Amino acid sequence: MAVLPAVLAVLALLLAPAPAAAADPPAVKLSKSQAGTGGSITVTGSGWRSKALLMILICGQSVPSTGVSGGTNSCANADGRAVTTDAEGRFSRKLPVAEPPVPCPCVVHVATVTGAKAEADAIFQVAGHAVEPLPAEPAGGRLSVLTDTRLDGSGSLLTWFGAPPARTLVFTVGNVGTSPVKNPVFQVGTSHGVFAPQWEEQQWRGTIQPGEKARIELPVELTAGAHGDYTVSLKYGGKVMAEQPWGVGRPWGVTLFWVLVCLVVPAALFRAGMAVVDRVRPRQTSRRRGLRMPEVALRIPGLRPRQEARHASPAPSTLPWFTPDNDPGAAGRLSAPHDDDSPTSPTTPLRKGPP
To answer: Residue 216 has what DSSP assignment?
Structure first.
C-alpha cells in the first residue's frame, strides 16, 4: 500500500505544468553579415512587443555591446525602413544597404518608435565602406542616469485654452568617472509620433564629484496648441540616456471658443441687420382708430387748410327713402310721351268742325 502514494506523487510531478519561461529579450537576425551598397538584406526579429512600430537603420561607429553611441546622426536615416510586429512579436523586412555617414564598425539597429523603449543591434559590414576604430571614451567624469525620469507639473486654465504645455524633467545622475563634472550640458528633445526629436541644449549649474550623484531638473515646453502622445528624450555626450512618454490632452477651450464664435457672430449679424431694417423702413405718423372711409379733399391753390375746408363744396347725398323710381321730381321726366285729351290742356288747339 505504501507504493501507491509514491506512484501518485510521481504522476503529479509529470503532469504538473512546466513553469513559464522568462520572456526573451528582443533579438535581431540578418540574412547576410556583409553586403555592398545597392544590395539588400532581410532583417528578422523576435521577442518584440506585439503590434509595435519599429525602425530599422544601418548605423556606423557602433557595436552591439555599446549600442549606437552617436545616436541616429551616425545612421543612414534616409534608407531606413519601418515595420510593425505581428501578434507574437515577430517581423521580417527587407532593408536596402546604404553607407552610414560615419565609418564602420557598423550594426543594423532596430528600435521601437512609440510606446515603451526597446532596441537591439546586429553586427553588419558594409562592403567597401571605411572602417576605423571606435573613438576612445574620454577619461575623467562620466554621468549615468541612476533613476527613472519623470515629468513634474500639470496644466493650467491657459493650457486648456491653447497655451504651450510645460513640464519639468526630473532625474538623478551619478558620476561614475574619475574626475568631477562641472556644469554639464544636456540635450532635451521632444518628438511627436514617428517624427525625430527636436533637440535643445540646457546647461545644469553645479559640480558633480566622482562617486556622487545629483538631482537634475530641466524645463520642457511644447508649442502652443500641442496635444497627443509625445516623447521626451535626454541625451548627454552624444548618447541618449533616457526617454519619457508624455500624453498631452486636447485644448478643449479652443474648441469651445470656436463653437461660441460660430453661434454668437451670426446672432450679432442678424440683430444688426434687423436694426438697420427697422431704421430704414418708413414709419406711420399717426395711428388710425377704427375704420374710416377715404375722403377726397379739393385743394385750392393759395388757401390754407382752414380756408380750403370753408370753400369745399359739400358732397351730394341722397336720402335713403328716395329712389329713382319714386322720386316725385323725376316722375314727369321719366314717363313716356302721350296724348292729353283733357279740354283744359293748354297745349291742345281747339278745332272747329263744319257747321
So the answer is: E
Instruction: State the average pLDDT over residues 14-41.
Output: 75
168 close to 196: Cβ distance less than 8 angstroms = no
Give dist(CA 196, CA 47) in Å, integer: 25
Is the model's pLDDT at 330 over the cut of 60?
Answer: no
Question: Quick check: 131 and 37 in contact, CB under 8 A?
Answer: no
Q: How many CB atoms lie within 10 A of CB 145?
A: 15
CA distance linking residue 197 with residue 58, whole number of Å: 19
Strand partners, 323: none
CB-based contact 47:89 (threshold 8 Å): yes
Span 112-151, pLDDT tens digits = 887 778 889 999 999 999 999 887 665 566 888 888 889 9
Residue 262, judged by CB atoms within 10 A of its CB (0-12, 13-18, 19+), counts as exposed
In this predicted model, what pLDDT tens digit does every residue of 244-288 receive, in sequence order? 899 888 888 888 888 888 888 888 888 888 888 888 887 765 555
Average pLDDT over residues 304-315: 55
Question: What three-state secondary structure class fits 141?
Answer: coil
Strands (DSSP E) contained in 128-250 are: 143-145, 150-152, 166-175, 181-182, 185-192, 198-203, 207-208, 213-221, 228-236, 239-248
CA-to-CA dists, residue 216 to 91, 176, 232, 243, 315, angstroms: 38, 16, 15, 15, 109
Instruction: Look up residue 251 and give its three cell numbers.
Output: 485644448
CB 236 within 8 A of CB 201: no
Q: Which residue matches cell numbers 545644469?
A: 204
